[in-house]
From TrEMBL:
<dbReference type="InterPro" id="IPR039430">
    <property type="entry name" value="Thymidylate_kin-like_dom"/>
</dbReference>
<dbReference type="InterPro" id="IPR027417">
    <property type="entry name" value="P-loop_NTPase"/>
</dbReference>
<dbReference type="Pfam" id="PF02223">
    <property type="entry name" value="Thymidylate_kin"/>
</dbReference>
<feature type="domain" description="Thymidylate kinase-like">
    <location>
        <begin position="101"/>
        <end position="198"/>
    </location>
</feature>
<protein>
    <submittedName>
        <fullName>AAA family ATPase</fullName>
    </submittedName>
</protein>
Length: 224
């Protein structure tokens, strides 16, 4: 399996600094999970060291079970639980990333919790913005962008979640604002999956795929 150094040489520039972590963010229905999983799988098929890591917050689980139990969590309580879980998963996955000589493709990050706070009208606080900024200095960051209507259709097609158009519009605007302010790359998530993966490969400095099997999987469970 190719090491990071070998990967850089393959790319035609031995001095090229291939990132150790690539973070994919975007609104619900943007295709984050699907793209991240497929990108990591494709790199592995081509002989590179790669792994997928999901920085979950438990939001979907909390929402689903609160409805089933007839419980309404106060917004502050739900955010606190989500932020603790998300911070723990980011810390654990960052540790995993530091122990492989290859690329870790992360689905979501701490900024996703800040987007949720912004959309919910909550104060951002001081600690979480600092942690988000500090933990994303080295990783390469990508925002997958899709039209809110397409995102809505994808969410509905999953049949296990629901997001309003107002939420999808607001979260999309917030991700695009963050991308502009932080100079993150924006990729059109409405493209066919192979094209999205090709864009990710190019951005991360990997050569074009040599694999002929690029079967498009079913839509992933993409949730903040």
């Amino acid at each position: 399996m190719a090491t990071v150094t070998q990967q850089a040489a393959i790319c035609g520039n031995p001095a090229y600094n291939i990132p150790r972590t690539l973070v994919i963010m975007g609104t619900d229905g943007a295709g984050k999970t699907t793209a991240a999983k497929e990108f990591a799988r494709e790199l592995e098929r081509d002989g590179f060291t790669a792994q997928f890591a999901a920085n979950v917050s438990g939001r979907r689980w909390l929402t689903r079970h609160s409805r089933a139990w007839g419980i309404t969590f106060p917004t502050f309580t739900q955010d606190f639980i989500e932020a603790v879980i998300r911070t723990a998963t980011v810390a654990a996955n960052s540790m995993r990333a530091s122990h492989i000589n290859g690329l870790t493709v992360m689905d979501r990050h701490l900024y996703c919790q800040l987007v949720l706070r912004s959309v919910r009208g909550q104060p951002l606080g001081l600690l979480l913005p600092w942690l988000a900024h500090s933990s994303i200095q080295k990783p390469l960051v990508v925002v997958l962008d899709v039209d809110p209507q397409e995102a809505f259709d994808r969410v509905v097609a999953r049949e296990d979640d629901f997001e309003s158009m107002d939420y999808l519009n607001a979260s999309r605007k917030e991700y695009l604002r963050l991308a502009r302010e932080n100079s993150w790359t924006i990729i059109d998530g409405s493209q066919p999956l192979p094209e999205v993966v090709t864009a990710l490969r190019s951005l991360a400095g990997y050569p074009a795929s040599q694999s002929r099997d690029r079967t498009v999987p079913s839509a992933g469970r993409d949730s903040l």
